[in-house]
Design a protein that fits this description.
globular, OB fold (Dihydrolipoamide Acetyltransferase, E2P), about 10% helix, about 50% strand, four-stranded antiparallel beta sheet, mainly beta
């Protein structure tokens, strides 16, 4: 698979929490956890469950961090 996105983080699914239509998928990457909100349908199609190897593909023009 070829992607234009340059930010790809490989890891292991830590948890999947399904809601009415959207699931929160936690991906353990090194010592950090990346959380993505995707559809329940996508979770099923991708076969995502704890222990599954997966990658987070990040395509964003801005990342903003703020403190008080």
């Amino acid at each position: 698979m070829k992607l234009s996105a340059r930010n790809v983080l490989s890891g292991t699914i830590k948890g999947v929490t399904k809601g009415a239509t959207t699931a929160h998928v936690e991906l353990a990457v090194g010592g950090a956890v990346v959380t993505a909100a995707i559809t329940n349908e996508a979770v099923e199609e991708l076969g995502l469950k704890p222990g599954t190897k997966a990658s987070a593909v990040i395509k964003a023009s801005d990342v903003i961090i703020a403190t008080e």
